[in-house]
Amino acid sequence: LDKVFILGKTFININNKYYQSLDSSNPENGFLKEYYIKEIKPEVHVISNKVLKPGEKKLMHKYYMYLNNTLTEINLKKKDILNVFNLKKEEIINFVKKNKLSYHNEEDVLKIYTFYNSLLIN
C-alpha cells in the first residue's frame, strides 16, 4: 500500500513506515508527521519492589520534510527549518516576519513550506 486514508487524513508509505501528509495539495512530498508510542516504565521501589508510579504509554510525534526523495527529520525550531529551506533562506525569514508566523507551530510551518514551494515554481 502506497497510501492510506483515515478520517480524512492521508498517510503515505516511505520505507515501510507510514507518515501523515500535512500538505493536502501535495501528499507525495512535503511536510510529514510520524506518530509513535513511547513507553514509560513503572517506577518501582528498590527494596520492597512496590510500584510507586505506574508505567504509561504516550502518543508522540516527529516531523519530517520529504524533498527530492530524501526524508529529513526536523524539529520545529527556526534553525532546523531554515536549514531545510536553505536555498531561499532570506525570503523565508522575511515571509515569517511579515506574516507573524512561528517556527514552533505546525500550521505555520506548513504555510512556510507552501510559500517555499511557490518560490521554487516561479
Automatic annotation (TrEMBL):
<protein>
    <submittedName>
        <fullName>Uncharacterized protein</fullName>
    </submittedName>
</protein>
